[in-house]
Design a protein that fits this description.
The complex is a heterodimer of chains A (383) and B (270). With 383 residues, chain A is α/β, with parallel strands linked by helices. Chain A has 15 helices and four strands. Chain A is elongated. The two termini of chain A are 32 Å apart. Classes of the chains: A alpha/beta (383), B alpha/beta (270). Chains A and B meet through helix 1, helix 8 and helix 15 of A and helix 3 and helix 4 of B.
């Protein structure tokens, strides 16, 4: 009954204060908006625009066919007008490009292809001129395609890199590397904002001592903080998590289907359980640090160091291969590694379940530690 | 001695609080050592304090600032533990059964604050639940106490928006939400205006008549003379005089008697 009253109080504190609620939900919304805008800026423009180019060509070269192939592969289409044409010479073509009436002008020197093929020729170097208008999006797009083809055209060999990975594999690798780390960061941020205020804030204001004078057990007081704060933090973390998941495809230029391909229903359940096990653990850790600290400011300083440490370890885990099974005994990191396994399709169910159990055991130990700290007059009253 | 009151009869000689040779020392930081003009890293706050308080009586701990009054009350309320010695509240040891002691006492001090976000009504219910008070009893007690102190009009106002006087009344009412046998007040009228101070002192007298045992610390002589049945004069953490108000004063005023004791121990003129 006392535990229930303590939990209700924490819930009332957060759900009764619109400002606190907004601070929990707002980060997710902002993440979604910012990442989506960033992603659209990086990938959005090129993917959507389809152009019809009008290109003047002076001189002859097989390169035009190669350029046309590249244009068509990119989803555009082009009309090639060879000069001299009726009423159009090179100078007129330049003016049209400048005026935006034509896309580009290609000028090949005489005997261009032959001169390139004859590497021993001592004549003048073959030349190709591409005249375009950088302010015009279509002209720039064509220049980019044609420039790439012409740059490779004169080389004596063709170098092709072929990536055997499917698009979905690449997307999964990217998501698996980044997402667990982001989850830990967002969970930590959510836990930090509520726990610091609730534990260090109450200690600083002297309201925690008022509860200590009652006959409630210290373990009930500790649990009465950790459990409701975990629920509230989970809500905040879910907001941030949704923001990331929904904006990640746009940010990385991959489709949602590709990003989550291969993650089974069991994978999603385990992912959820891992997050749920990490939240009370982090809340417990921050609550213990907050109990030890005299002020919110002091607690905030220590907790920031803890957050940086977790971030670094999460990143290292994402990019270092061959981590042994011992990692399952390390709180938080075990969840990061298990989540990476789920997202790359290399899910190990035993590891996920053991990680959840290990994290819950650590949480219980932290609750006992907080209860001891609450009983310590040195910690609570600085004597 | 059997006493008859409107609230029932009770035996006044029943010992409710007994402190036995309480001792408490604190570690001084370098800064504190400088302020105290000492190079000794430990300070003896309470040094072998013993006294008894009885049912239906008000016991006043009288002493200057830093004498050890607050430390003694903190030990009795189980917020801190004595280094040695023990104290018993309603027969429960503060060292061995602190949770039972906490159920038997109501403790009010300016150091214990109420969360400004909540209303007096909510906090009364919350602390009632913390002490395991049954809902029906809690509702009746809230109605009675809120009406008695004029809190009913502010019951749903957030604590942070209350005046200092009203906040003190709310703190007082919440400290006795569970109808404790022993009420401990650290400087009960400090910082209060004359009207609120009178309400508080009248209520202490009322609690006494209800058979409660009250321990208070103060350095206000008039409060001791007006309220206390027994007095303990603490100087430098030691009990310099302990007994009924009449025995302690011996025909003098409590103020005259206090300074006489003070001079005899400290050898200083004030």
């Amino acid at each position: 009954m006392k535990l229930l009253a303590l939990m209700k109080k924490e819930f009332r504190r957060f759900f009764g204060d619109p400002k606190l609620l907004i601070t929990m939900i707002l980060p997710g919304l902002l993440i979604y908006l910012i990442y989506t805008v960033m992603g659209s800026a990086i990938f959005g423009g090129d993917e959507q625009a389809k152009y019809s180019f009008k290109v003047y060509v002076s001189g002859e070269s097989q390169a035009v066919q190669l350029i046309d192939a590249a244009v068509q592969k990119s989803g555009h289409e082009a009309e090639y007008v060879y000069l001299p044409a009726e009423g159009v010479d090179e100078e007129t073509a330049r003016r049209e490009v400048k005026a935006g009436e034509a896309t580009a002008l290609l000028v090949f020197s005489e005997g261009f292809d032959g001169a390139i093929a004859d590497t021993d020729a001592s004549d003048a170097m073959p030349s190709a001129l591409l005249c375009y208008h950088s302010e015009d999006a279509a002209s720039s797009a064509f220049a980019s395609l044609a420039g790439a083809v012409l740059d490779a055209y004169g080389r004596s060999f063709v170098f092709t890199m072929q990536n055997s990975a499917e698009a979905a594999d690449i997307a999964q690798t990217m998501v698996a590397g980044i997402l667990p780390m982001l989850i830990v960061v967002f969970v930590f941020s959510a836990c930090m904002s509520v726990t610091l205020e609730s534990v260090a804030g109450e200690k600083e204001r002297g309201t925690l001592s008022t509860i200590l004078v009652t006959s409630a057990r210290r373990t009930d007081i500790a649990l009465g903080k950790v459990l409701p704060l975990s629920c509230v933090s989970l809500m905040g973390a879910a907001s941030s998590f949704l923001g990331v998941v929904l904006s990640l495809p746009t940010l990385m230029g991959i489709s949602v289907d590709a990003a989550v391909a291969g993650v089974s229903a069991l994978g999603y359940v385990l992912l959820f359980l891992l997050i749920v096990s990490v939240v009370p653990l982090i809340v417990g850790a921050i609550a213990a640090v907050s109990t030890l600290s005299r002020t919110v400011k002091e607690a905030s300083g220590y907790t920031s160091v803890l957050m940086i440490l977790m971030m670094v370890l999460s990143i290292v885990t994402a990019f270092v291969s061959g981590i042994g099974d011992w990692v399952v005994a390390v709180p938080v990191l075990n969840a990061v590694v298990a989540m990476q396994g789920i997202l790359t399709g290399a899910m190990q169910v035993w590891m996920c379940l053991v990680a959840v159990a290990v994290n819950l055991v650590y949480t219980a130990l932290l609750v006992l530690l907080i209860a001891r700290l609450l009983s310590s007059e040195r910690v609570m009253f600085g004597k | 001695m059997q006493t008859e009151t409107p609230f029932g009869d009770f035996t006044q000689s029943e010992e409710v609080v007994r402190a036995e040779d309480l001792r408490k020392t604190f570690t001084l930081s370098r800064k504190q050592q400088r302020l105290e003009h000492t190079s000794f890293p430990r300070k003896v706050a309470v040094d072998g304090l013993s006294f008894s308080a009885y049912r239906g009586e008000i016991y006043g701990l009288l002493g200057p600032n830093g004498a050890g009054k607050t430390t003694t009350l903190r030990m009795l309320s189980t917020l801190i533990s004595p280094d040695s010695g023990d104290a018993f509240v309603c027969g429960h040891s503060v060292r061995r059964a602190p949770h039972k002691v906490r159920d038997a006492i109501g403790f009010m001090t300016s150091e214990l604050k109420l969360e400004g976000f909540f209303t007096p009504s909510y906090l009364f219910d919350f602390f009632g639940a913390m002490h395991g008070v049954e809902k029906g009893v809690l509702a009746a007690r809230k109605e009675e106490l809120f009406a008695r102190f004029g809190i009913d009009r502010f019951a749903e106002v957030k604590v942070k928006d209350l005046s200092t006087g009203m906040l003190q009344k709310v703190s007082l009412v919440i400290s006795i939400v569970h109808d404790p046998a022993v009420v401990i007040f650290d400087e009960p009228t400090n910082g209060l205006d004359v009207l609120t101070a009178k309400v508080v002192t009248d209520f202490l007298a009322e609690l006494k008549n209800m058979g409660k045992s009250i321990l208070l610390s103060t350095h206000i002589f008039s409060l001791v003379e007006k309220l206390c049945d027994r007095v303990g004069i603490i100087i430098d953490g030691k009990m310099a005089a302990d007994g009924t108000l009449a025995d302690i004063c011996g025909g003098m005023s409590i103020e005259e008697r206090f300074f006489e004791v003070y001079r005899s121990i400290k050898g200083e003129t004030v």
